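Why predict the complex rather than its parts? Because the way molecules touch one another can change local conformation, and only a joint prediction can capture that. The input here totals 840 residues.
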Amino acid sequence: MAVVVMKFGGTSVANVDRIKNVARHVKREFAAGNKVAVVLSAMAGTTNQLVEWVREISPLYDAREYDAVVASGEQVTAGLLAIALQAEGIPARSWQGWQIPIETDAAHGAARIAEIDGSHLRERIDTGEVAVVTGFQGIEPETGRIATLGRGGSDTSAAAVAVAIKADVCDIYTDVDGVYTTDPRIVPLARRIPKISYEEMLEMASLGSKVLQTRSVELAMVYGLRLRVLSSFAEPDSLPPVEIGNLENIGTTVCSEDEIVETQVVSGIAYAKDEAKVTILKLEDKPGVAARIFGPLSKAAINVDMIVQNVTPDGAHTDMTFTVQAAELPRALEVIDKVKQDLGNFEVKSSDDVVKISIIGIGMRSHAGVAAKMFQTLSDKGINILAISTSEIKVSVLINADYAELAVRALHEVYGLDAK
Amino acid sequence: MAVVVMKFGGTSVANVDRIKNVARHVKREFAAGNKVAVVLSAMAGTTNQLVEWVREISPLYDAREYDAVVASGEQVTAGLLAIALQAEGIPARSWQGWQIPIETDAAHGAARIAEIDGSHLRERIDTGEVAVVTGFQGIEPETGRIATLGRGGSDTSAAAVAVAIKADVCDIYTDVDGVYTTDPRIVPLARRIPKISYEEMLEMASLGSKVLQTRSVELAMVYGLRLRVLSSFAEPDSLPPVEIGNLENIGTTVCSEDEIVETQVVSGIAYAKDEAKVTILKLEDKPGVAARIFGPLSKAAINVDMIVQNVTPDGAHTDMTFTVQAAELPRALEVIDKVKQDLGNFEVKSSDDVVKISIIGIGMRSHAGVAAKMFQTLSDKGINILAISTSEIKVSVLINADYAELAVRALHEVYGLDAK
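Output of the joint prediction:
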């Protein structure tokens, strides 16, 4: 017997038939004697429609009212699934954020979960009732207002509920059957990764593999919660029910590094297309110049990712390249234009025709030459590197978008990730 | 300065433009210094869609989960209107049933409001903030579950909120500009009634004039709350803001009889098309036979309206005619079929090709011959009366549906209701 949280996203509950399909997934666990809480997103498209209405009425909307509106989609799917489960003979009850409660901070529209008292929910689950919980939403206890976690927040809700009810595993059902060594649409030989560490998954998640929301992985890491990525499109009866000690037979298990016996030097290759590059040329090279560029960007809440700086041959000037989210490029250029008035003449070039490719693996910590192999491989293919950034377990390079597929395929092969 | 509750139904908030139009109605009151609470329905069509999903998943749905699902529509419109008001520069906040709270009994799907503590809402309104309240829903305090009031329940929510915050008037905005002496589509000379008593309105409401929900009028009557019926399709700036002592210049005010100086003998003519007639022929005439027919119908929660009984010329048998809601006719016939096994052979005939026409007026109490005039008028037109029922302030007749328009027109003229 295991305590299981099952999370289903918008495409998995997109209509009545899909909701009935989710009920069959839950039935499989229930029939095996597992105790189940389900966390749901809104029907695919619903949240977009609600957001559109809010924006049509007022682009400068009040975030608390925005939250009251957009949180309604999860209320619908949670109630419908509870009914679908009851129709299958399974006792079930829906729970909205405020009913549990899932307490959040006051950052409406992008709130963080502050606390969940899971004791009542756990009691109900222990009686054999399935709890169907609305993802994406909670309540801000000071004002009693509904707060939402931001797009993709249901993964985080699922992880937080799993921690709160002391679940053995949190299964995230998606439209893929696990985390792959890279995007199988680009590399047909990509393999499903049976086990991946929290750290690697965090890098994968934040670098463009949109399988799991970053915050849900962070939460799982902090509390030592096992996450799994499974496919909701699999025939419900084709999957084995959760059995502790035998989780890796399907999907991808995200867990502590200690639980992974056979570590890879490189576990996966991620790419992020929504990057834009800004290059500042002929900037006067004097102390504090970087701060005077990046300070205002930070104040404008623009996230700068990779930064490369070179001194020009004359020694008096410096060239600087950095990347931002493509969507934030226009705002970034506006900020820099203002800085120009302070810092004197420099040239600015920008392009969103770039892609960030990353190799990720906890094995890097103990292996030398991993980055060098990457650079050599790209060089062999004639691919120019525009910027580099590294962390303990990843190396990222910025390259021209035209070479994205070529780079990913070459790296996937050279690090031995291709399926045999 | 007045404290005003404004209620808008589904067609008045059917899309973003209509919601902005509602905001302008509210702005008119706000600008005049009135304190405002708004009560809203869901967008037209939304609740039907939600109900359809519930039924598709399971015809035997759990009423508590049904309520969780269908209550979401009002949450959306309330949030959107709050944003629309803020965009007009008016401080506003949305309130769901559980946030106020609006406490109900446990009859999910058709709950009754048990209590509203309006003190916090009133405090907020007194600060100049407009409260936007979700109609149709509340919370059952024992279980903490959302409960809905049944279709059309937003009128009742509005009246109950008005009582709770001690409002001076509750304005119900609809697609008509008031209550008419009869349906203007049938009688072009029908007139708007500036003032009508609660008792008359109750008869009008329950007899087929679907302008106001019955329960909202009952509530208003018990608490002496003034209700008005106004048009939400009127240009917002064309209506005068609420001014106590000068309410009857527009719409229809529903108020206590004492406030009506000039009472009519007959105030209005109502008709109800959704009636069905059941006739039982050659029933053995013995004591208790009526109870053995109507007892089982009552147990099956089938509401019987008009009842007529005759003894046949041989004195041994009796014929009985009664009416039920047309939608309940099949179930009623089933019940009677079972009774037949007990009561022996009788003949059953039924028809839903009938209509109930009623004349309504508090003046009837002190005037004789009102009913006689009705019967004579119908007789003059060659219309056969199938059944009659009366109360202190109304007379209803059942006639063949073919004569409905003819009857309404003739009665409207004979009681002096035609516009000059």
